[in-house]
Write a structure and sequence with these properties.
6-stranded parallel sheet; 16 helices; 7-stranded parallel sheet; 13 strands
Amino acid sequence: MSLVFLGADFPPSRGGIQTVAFELPLALSQAGVEVAVVTVSREGAEAFDAQCPYPVVRVPAGSKRQVAANLAAGAAQATAQLHSPPRAIVATKWFPEGLAARKVWASARIPVALIAHGREFRLHGGNPAKWLLQRYVLAGVRAGFAVSQWTAGQLVAAGVPAERVSVVHNGIRPEVYAEPKAVAELRAGLGLDDAPVLLTVGRLVERKGHAAVIRALPQVVAQLGPVSYVIAGSGPEESRLRAEVEALHLQERVRFAGAVADEQLPDFYHLCDLFVMPTRELRDDPVEGFGIVYLEANAAGKPVLATRCGGVADAVEDQVSGVLLEPGDEGALVEAIISLLGDPARLQQMGQAGLRRVRERFTWDRIAQEFLEGLDRAGL
């Protein structure tokens, strides 16, 4: 059995979709499935591909429609390298990969499978051309894979029959986060004292909720004494967040760590006492489809504080691996931070429960098996 994955977002570039596009084929190949990935050329690709354990076909970059055509051509090249006809062409998102997969179906009649992340189905601004193109792509999907229950609802509402949709979450490699390497050095480098640490890892955009945590901090400190907040990531909201920190005179309590390399992330998670990312939906920046960072924090044995927003409830089990709040309720956020940081035993209990949950339900080998079961259910 073989599968061809189409993924314009693929390492060495970084991001959640890039991780899925690399890790899922890897886990499937380790399970005995022959896989190939078709992606676009980019700087550093040659060195990455040389170490990749499955074939990677690179095609020229360009506009998204050009990339769709190039990925479709690359799929033919990848198929020729396989020992058996592909069971499906797997698009790692609906555009341009889904359009490319539809082109492959038109020429080679290889069934189309699509991974849906959630936010891509919230088409704001009223774009009829985009809506029609998405409907065309989804009409050809034989198997849809949603990263959360919420995303599954979005996929069905967008036109994929429910019987063709399976919920297959994102996965992680828990062993990567199990052992810290240099937490003491990281703490010293950030200039942190011995106070408890809140952490957010993610792009600095409004919907992630960094500003709400900053606004909560004065009340938290008033109740508990010194508490530090480490913000790991970069993005367009950084200047506004820094201004908020200055306005509240929190320069001694908030640290902007900037973009963090993958190999450093485990130390950041182990540094914190509580991971917090209170996401919310904004009109021009829709919600999280899942929220893999919550699993990463759990894999380091840390509890998480999140919101019932989008697909986050699939990533966080309320009162087990963390606490879920209503989006935008800043009063509840303050209360939850104070309650959790004020109860170290509860923090420890939730962190360990989250770690067990990740190891039992969210490893990539388990995700790969669920993916294959989804293909079976769809009749592929």
